[in-house]
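We now fix the convention by which a protein and its fold are recorded. Here is one such record, which you should read through line by line:

>
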Amino acid sequence: QVRFVESGGGLVQPGGSLKLSCAASGNVFSRYAMAWYRHSPGKRREMVAYIYTNGDKFYVDSVRGRFTISTDNAALTMYLQMNILKPEDTAVYYCTALMPGRLEPYEWWGPGTQVTVSE
């Protein structure tokens, strides 16, 4: 089992930026598609973005153009650059790998990192 640790969250004003990091315990980025999810109280867990091993990326409509997903295989780290943040982006953000051939996450959740967008 691979372990992930998310970091980089915090409190930011609307319109601000944050860069989240996802540190992996092993070299998974060349083996699995990877995804960022978020979960806020009263809502279902939502996939925010994912990246295939070939570098292709996908974003949900609500973040497209504002968020950028990337990986650094040498550093065993995935990132989520978040710009023009909105209050509705407030959530705990998690990263994990996706099952091959499916867009289902492995249940390898880390502790998550809290992002709060507020005045």
Remarks:
- The mean pLDDT is 96.
- The beta strands are 4-7, 10-12, 18-24, 34-39, 46-51, 57-59, 67-72, 77-82, 91-97, 113-117.
- DSSP finds no helices and ten strands in the chain.
- The radius of gyration is 13 Å.
